[in-house]
Structure to design on (239 residues):
């Protein structure tokens, strides 16, 4: 299966942000999308997920050849797309465990009961070195920046999407948290999953080796290559 972005133009509030971008993410691939602030990376991620603030002017978003450009975010999730937010929201009154179990069961024909899901959740939390008490807390409420990002990766590990889009998951993480988050991402790599890592910096790529690297500037992809391209950007910047 493939997630294909085809000649996509996206605006927000009347301002053109993404300007004719094409990109294909296949199952089994890890792609890094790098670029300076304001290049349109996060807008692209939001548009792929169906954010209503993103106005798709033209172009298509396809999953295995099926046009999903007009689908709502929940329908896109059912097609196997997952977005890890750059700035995860706090949701008061909804515990992490209830949020994840509801999300998990909404994507499957055979829902898991409370006890079976708790077992699954604790296994994933152990991999991310997260205290089991987090399951009782409201989603992201009072969480540190690193805890929020770790929770985003936990969601990915539980939901097991076909295509995971990670929007600057590494931002604001200290070295230890970055290693743990990278460990979770590496655990999800495999032939059944495509992963798109959106980042400013090379540092997360010290732990996760991408198959392809794309550089985005002013709403377009201006350069592509292998891991060496990310190292070059680290040394020379976005020139």
């Amino acid at each position: 299966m493939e997630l294909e972005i085809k000649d996509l133009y996206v605006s927000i509030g009347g301002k053109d942000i993404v300007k004719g971008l094409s990109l294909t993410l296949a199952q089994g691939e890890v792609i890094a999308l790098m670029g300076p602030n304001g290049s349109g990376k996060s807008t692209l991620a939001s548009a792929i997920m169906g954010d209503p603030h993103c106005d798709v002017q033209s172009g298509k978003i396809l999953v295995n050849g099926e046009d999903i450009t007009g689908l709502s975010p929940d329908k896109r999730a059912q097609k196997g797309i997952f977005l890890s937010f750059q700035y995860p929201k706090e949701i008061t009154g909804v515990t992490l465990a209830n949020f994840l179990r509801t999300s998990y069961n909404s994507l499957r024909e055979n829902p898991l009961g409370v006890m079976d899901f708790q077992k699954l959740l604790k296994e994933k939390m152990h991999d991310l070195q997260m205290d089991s008490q987090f399951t009782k807390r409201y989603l992201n409420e009072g969480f540190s920046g690193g805890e929020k990002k770790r929770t985003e990766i936990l969601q990915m590990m539980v939901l097991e999407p076909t295509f995971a889009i990670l929007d600057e998951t590494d931002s604001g993480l200290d070295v230890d948290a970055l290693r743990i988050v990278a460990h979770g991402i590496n655990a999800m790599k495999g032939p059944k999953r495509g992963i798109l890592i959106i980042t400013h910096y090379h540092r997360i790529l010290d732990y996760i080796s991408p198959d392809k690297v794309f550089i985005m500037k002013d709403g377009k992809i201006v350069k592509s290559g292998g891991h060496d391209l990310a190292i070059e950007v680290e040394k020379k910047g976005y020139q």
Q: What stands out?
A: Residues 2-236 form a domain with the Rossmann fold fold (CATH 3.40.50.300). The chain has a mean pLDDT of 93.
